[in-house]
């Protein structure tokens, strides 16, 4: 097992696209943080008593999840696109080890990158919010560290969701379109769903699944960590399907 | 020693039976040519040997075991199924290093196989910049990583220049001389004639012949004799009378079958005919192959 993990790490680090994607994650993520923090005055006026400076500085997660999803997808689909998967599964015929190693490496990279991004977004965002004379937060304030930590975990879960989708779809485009549908389209259309489906939205990415990225309690999600755990369960389900399909299908 | 044992192997894709109850063995110390027209099921068979495709029936044993049961497969079987199966953005060295790491092989093996395949200078280049010939070499280097006893190559000379073809041919020979079992597929009989000791010929997924190269040559018939003579009409008459079959070839050459060149010469001398050319023609392996597989070619051209 550890051999497969070493192999996957060599594969990931030896592609320039990995580092470009990570660079993009930080440039775009922190760029959005700066933009959002500079418009904190309007947001504060709109929010009133519900003003949450922590959540405001973490809003970059909305776009960051797409970029980290691209990274997760490519861990798998770049091998299908180039045919390398055939070589990989020939030298490691116990296929579950290959996917387990990919999941482990993607999780490790995403949790580190996602956590660093979230901490950086908070540390860059708060002084900018302060400069506009809007109430802001410090890392030591109640609930702040927890929310920032939830941000990193959330991004890692989305990366794993992308690994699962990439394995199931075996194509970059298909996996990314599905991911965009899940993280952007469904939340945008959430109001259209019948009430019996709304329960699922409590654990959906960008909706309930991201509720833990706040310090001010949301009446819809009184226990946001349960919502994040629910998202984790959903991602585990997608990965379970991916494991079964990878073992069964011819390559 | 039998290294690969294919027995009753069957694979269906929808209504098509791509590999149909195929059985053959691959022995150590020789090159086994796996021959058949395009679409005969060669690649599918090789993919089943290394577990990439699941058979619908039958089994494959390598050294008595299932491929998937090898804890360190690279040290048992090296396979080049598709030279394009590399990521174009990855350096040759890193590609091989990842493969070596996945089987716990030491890093030093990467340098060794790069040297053996003449790729040392290209180690730091990205595979996307490689010519087809270099990609074939990289694929062969990957197959050699674990110093395996069994090697499987699918169409390794496809798209290579003459120098590359000769290099692959000599490598196959030397790998077999080291005692390894080498299975090489091709749709070109002429290529196999110069490389293989043993031939497994398939068509439409079925076994057509499992034979040595020399046996196949004999089966193809004794060959013909090309004769150029001052009076073709007379000689043709005399040859026919003596029991040979004669037909007219190009540029008024007589093509004689059923008689040796020596006998044709004697007959001509007896009748006082002057020969300007007397050339025995070996039956070409290509002809033998065409004769064997003509019923199993998937898409046949229609003669105008």
UniProtKB/TrEMBL annotation, chain A:
It comes from the Bacteria. It holds the Pfam family ABC2_membrane_4. The chain crosses the membrane at residues 20-40, 60-82, 103-124, 144-168, 175-196, 225-246. Keywords: Membrane, Transmembrane, Transmembrane helix. This is ABC transporter permease. It comes from Actinoplanes auranticolor.
From TrEMBL, chain B:
GO terms for molecular function: ATP binding; ATP hydrolysis activity. It comes from the Bacteria. Pfam families: ABC_tran (PF00005). Residues 4-229 form the ABC transporter domain. SMART domains: AAA (SM00382). InterPro entries: AAA+_ATPase, ABC_transporter-like_ATP-bd, ABC_transporter-like_CS, P-loop_NTPase. Belongs to the ABC transporter superfamily. PANTHER family: ABC TRANSPORTER, ATP-BINDING PROTEIN. This is Multidrug ABC transporter ATP-binding protein. It comes from Actinoplanes auranticolor.
């Amino acid at each position: 097992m550890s051999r497969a993990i070493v192999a996957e790490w060599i594969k990931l680090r030896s592609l320039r696209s990995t580092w470009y994607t990570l660079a993009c994650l930080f440039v775009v993520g922190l760029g959005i943080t700066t933009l959002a923090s500079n418009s904190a005055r309007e947001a504060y006026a709109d929010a009133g008593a519900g003003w949450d400076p922590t959540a405001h500085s973490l809003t970059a997660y909305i776009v960051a999840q797409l970029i980290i999803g691209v990274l997760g997808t490519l861990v798998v689909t770049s091998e299908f696109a180039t045919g390398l998967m055939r070589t990989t599964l020939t030298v490691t015929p116990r296929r579950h080890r290959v996917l387990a190693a990919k999941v482990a490496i993607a999780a490790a990279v995403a949790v580190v990158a996602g956590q660093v991004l979230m901490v950086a977004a908070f540390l860059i965002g708060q002084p900018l919010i302060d400069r506009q004379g809007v109430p802001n937060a410090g890392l030591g304030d109640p609930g702040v560290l927890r929310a920032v930590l939830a941000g990193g975990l959330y991004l890692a879960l989305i990366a794993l969701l992308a690994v699962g989708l990439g394995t199931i779809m075996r194509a970059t485009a298909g996996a990314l379109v599905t991911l965009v549908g899940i993280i952007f389209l469904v939340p945008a259309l959430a109001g259209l769903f019948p009430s019996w489906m709304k329960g699922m939205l409590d654990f959906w990415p960008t909706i309930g699944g991201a509720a833990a990225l706040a310090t001010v309690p949301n009446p819809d999600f009184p226990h946001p960590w349960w919502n994040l755990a629910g998202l984790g369960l959903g991602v585990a389900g997608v990965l379970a399907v991916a494991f079964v399909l990878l073992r069964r299908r011819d390559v | 020693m039998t290294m690969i044992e294919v027995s009753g192997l069957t694979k269906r894709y929808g209504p098509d039976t791509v590999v149909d109850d195929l059985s053959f063995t691959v022995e150590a110390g020789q090159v086994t040519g796996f021959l058949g027209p395009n679409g005969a099921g060669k690649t599918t068979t090789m993919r089943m040997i290394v577990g990439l495709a699941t058979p619908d029936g039958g089994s494959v044993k390598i050294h008595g075991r299932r491929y998937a049961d090898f804890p360190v497969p690279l040290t048992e079987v090296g396979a080049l199924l598709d030279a394009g199966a590399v990521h174009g953005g990855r350096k040759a060295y890193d590609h091989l290093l990842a493969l070596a790491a996945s089987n716990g092989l030491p890093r030093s093996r990467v340098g060794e196989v790069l040297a053996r395949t003449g790729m040392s200078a290209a180690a730091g280049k990205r595979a996307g910049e490689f010519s087809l010939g270099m990609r074939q070499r990289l694929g062969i280097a990957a197959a050699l990583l674990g110093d395996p006893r069994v090697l499987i190559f699918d169409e390794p000379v496809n798209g290579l220049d003459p120098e590359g073809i000769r290099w692959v041919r000599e490598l196959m020979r030397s790998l077999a001389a080291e005692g390894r079992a080498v299975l090489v597929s091709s749709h070109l009989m002429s290529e196999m004639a110069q490389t293989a000791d043993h031939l497994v010929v398939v068509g439409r997924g079925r076994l057509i012949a499992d034979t040595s190269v020399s046996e196949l040559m004999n089966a193809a018939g004794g060959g013909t004799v090309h004769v150029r003579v001052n009076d073709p009409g007379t000689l043709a008459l005399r040859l026919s009378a003596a029991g040979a079959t004669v037909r007219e070839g190009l540029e008024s050459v007589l093509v004689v079958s059923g008689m040796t060149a020596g006998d044709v010469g004697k007959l001509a001398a007896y009748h006082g005919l002057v020969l300007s050319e007397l050339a025995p023609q070996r039956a070409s392996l290509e002809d033998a192959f065409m004769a064997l597989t003509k019923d199993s070619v998937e898409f046949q051209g229609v003669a105008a």
